[in-house]
Amino acid sequence: MSNRKPSMGASTGEGTSCAASSEDTTKVEDKCVEDELVSLQDLEDVLHSGPHSCHHGDEVWPKLYLGDMVMSHDKFSLWQLGITHVLNASHGKLCCRGSDDFYGTTVKYYGVPAHDLPTFDLSPFFYPAAEFIHQGLTSGGKVFVHCAVGVSRSAALVLAYLMIHHHLSLLSSIRCVQPKRWIFPNRGFLRQLLDLDQKLREKKLTVRQ
Fold it and tell me: Which residues form the Tyrosine-protein phosphatase domain (predicted)?
């Protein structure tokens, strides 16, 4: 972490069990690995059981922050955190001003024009968003992922990233993020993440054969 201190209620995840910035990513993965097949109701029960609190931005994985539109509009706080990449899961919505022009040349921006509706198909954005996050983190940067509230759309994309690039199950991904921030993707997004989970499991089995 930078010596600059975050403002706007941003949480760096220090002292937490699964995404403290001082931990190596491999160690984080080891702590989060579980390999359980679960139903939609199981996932919702787990999500309901989590702490219902969050800041405007929370570090949910080393150098990966999940937050809301308030934090996304505060360029000074993002600079304090050392954010180099912003992924906006509510791109084009009136409540979120994010764009390449808004952040300038010092921050790389990626916008996903998602609606927080169970009928919206977020799955076409799972891999592009995961790749954007992955490139930001592996280049030594810090990534801020947000939507309007930072609970559904952006949370679903962060979960997809953990599943795709860190080979965690959906349940394991939720249990990694949940202690750092309250999340609750809508039912449609959870179904799409379950489909992704199943496809990734099948891919693992094919590779092993």
Answer: 55-202
Return d(Cα 207, Cα 209) in angstroms, integer.
Answer: 6
**Global pTM?**
0.84
Structural domain including 95 reads: 40-207
**Does a structural domain hold residue 84?**
yes
What is the rounded CA–CA span in Å between residue 23 and residue 25? Answer: 6
Residue 199: count other Cβ atoms within 10 Å of its Cβ. Answer: 12
The residue type found at 71 is M
The packing angle between helices 153-166 and 25-32, to 10°, is 100
**The domain that contains 103 carries what CATH number?**
3.90.190.10
* Per-residue pLDDT reduced to its tens digit, 156-209: 999 999 999 999 999 999 999 999 999 999 999 999 999 999 999 999 887 766
- Cα angle value 109/115/118 (rounded, 5°): 135
Active site residue 147: yes
In a domain, 26, yes or no: no
Residue with tokens 């309250």: 182
Half-sphere exposure of 8 (CA within 13 A, CB side): 18
Q: Which of 32, 54, 96, 147 is catalytic?
A: 147
Domain count for the chain, please give it: 1
